[in-house]
Design a protein that fits this description.
Elements lengths: L2 H12 L6 H6 L7 H4 L2 H5 L3 E2 L13 H4 L1 H4 L24 E10 L8 E11 L4 E7 L4 E2 L7 E2 H21 L5 E6 L3 H7 L3 E5 L1 H9 L1 H4 L11 E5 L1 H9 L6 H20 L3 H11 L3 E3 L3 H9 L1 H4 L5 E5 L5 E6 L2 E6 L1 H13 L2
Parallel strand pairs: 1-10, 2-7, 4-11
Antiparallel strand pairs: 2-3, 3-4, 5-6, 7-10, 8-9, 12-13
């Protein structure tokens, strides 16, 4: 298969419904021109390496996610056993590398913030396939040593280490590495490409204009209107964070639209702008992947992208129940059924 077809397939991959902003950030080198890839090692040296074991429990949590009733009683409590971890041993395969891509939203005075995007990228070196599992942030799960909560609370409590432990314990799949980025810093990159074009619904425009204190960081308020808008970095981030007008599914859809808009801007950008975009993003990334591992992933891209992409979102439609628990809107999954979907997708089990 030619290089052009591989590039088209990869761009289609980025535009999938559950990709999330974080995937553009972490894989930007793969859609740049060959001349930019020559400087890959220099760019990669700007990425922050941090081992999973370096992350400890946070001293503060996002108030709008955890709630004051949980901040003092978030450790093991009377409802600790209400949810159950998945059954069986954690599955792994020497031919499969699972990388958890995390997009976080940290605000002042918080610990790790919310993991708004959690995308498991599974690369099979034997079958040359890439598969994806997206975990919705409102997924209600058992968290080791904590009260049952939304899955993104595990990131707020203990960063990538506890989030990985939570996914492995609930769904019994081995996660080899992680990469994370703070969404707030994504503003700068969007400003570099001149903003993004987004068609806002009446409800979305009203939500942004009515609650600028919630959606706009550092006072960079952008007034918007119904219809097509050119959103700057602050406006795009605010749009991607909207959640009160519909659901987590709607929020994920908005993040997909941001991905599409960013890619559209990048397609019309010159090499200097592309390089500046990557140069501004990479210092904001933390990962336990070494530079040599990242370069290896890049070098294998053309081969692993030659097959058909497969993906799923957890919880799977029909295998969860919407509920309200301790004032939180959550998605309570059938753990075993969702675990089986992931096992079949990644390991054909």
């Amino acid at each position: 298969m030619g290089k052009g077809k591989n590039n088209t397939r990869f761009k289609s991959f980025l535009l999938t419904r559950h990709g999330g902003i974080i995937f553009v950030t972490l894989c930007i080198l793969l859609i740049l021109t060959g001349s930019v890839l020559v400087g890959a090692e220099s760019l990669l040296s700007r990425i922050g390496y941090q081992a999973k074991d370096d992350f400890q429990l946070a001293s503060s949590f996002p108030a709008d996610e955890i709630g004051p009733q949980l901040q003092e009683s978030s450790l093991v409590s009377e409802d600790y056993s209400s949810m159950q971890f998945g059954t069986g041993s954690v599955l792994s395969d020497p031919n499969i590398q699972n990388i958890l891509l995390i997009g976080s939203d940290t605000r002042g005075g918080e610990g790790y913030g919310n993991s708004d995007t959690m995308l498991l990228l599974s690369i099979n070196s034997k079958t040359k396939q890439v598969k994806m599992v997206s975990f919705l942030r409102d997924l209600y799960v058992k968290i080791n040593g904590m009260r049952d909560n939304r899955i993104n609370a595990s990131y707020a409590y203990g960063g990538p280490k506890l989030l990985i432990d939570t996914i492995e314990s609930n769904f019994k799949i081995k996660i080899d590495n992680y990469a994370s980025i703070n969404f707030q810093s994504f503003e700068k990159a969007i400003d570099i490409v001149g903003g993004v074009r987004i068609n806002l619904t009446k409800a979305e425009a009203r939500e942004l204009n009515s609650h600028p204190d919630i959606y706009f960081i550092n006072g960079r308020i952008q007034r918007v209107s119904t219809g097509m808008n050119t959103l700057n970095g602050a406006g795009a981030l605010g749009y991607a964070r909207i959640r009160h007008i519909d659901s987590d599914f709607g929020r994920t859809e908005r993040q997909r639209k941001i991905v599409e808009a960013v890619l559209s801007s990048l397609k019309h950008s010159n090499p200097v702008t592309l390089f500046n975009f990557a140069n501004s993003i990479f210092p904001l990334v933390k990962t336990d992947l070494t530079n040599s591992q990242i370069l290896s992933l890049i070098s294998r891209t053309s081969s692993v992208l030659s097959g058909q992409m497969q993906q799923t979102a957890i919880p799977v439609e029909g295998d969860y129940k919407p509920d309200e628990i301790r004032g939180m809107d959550v998605l309570v999954p059938d753990i075993e059924k969702n675990k089986e979907v992931i096992w079949k997708l990644l390991y054909n089990r």
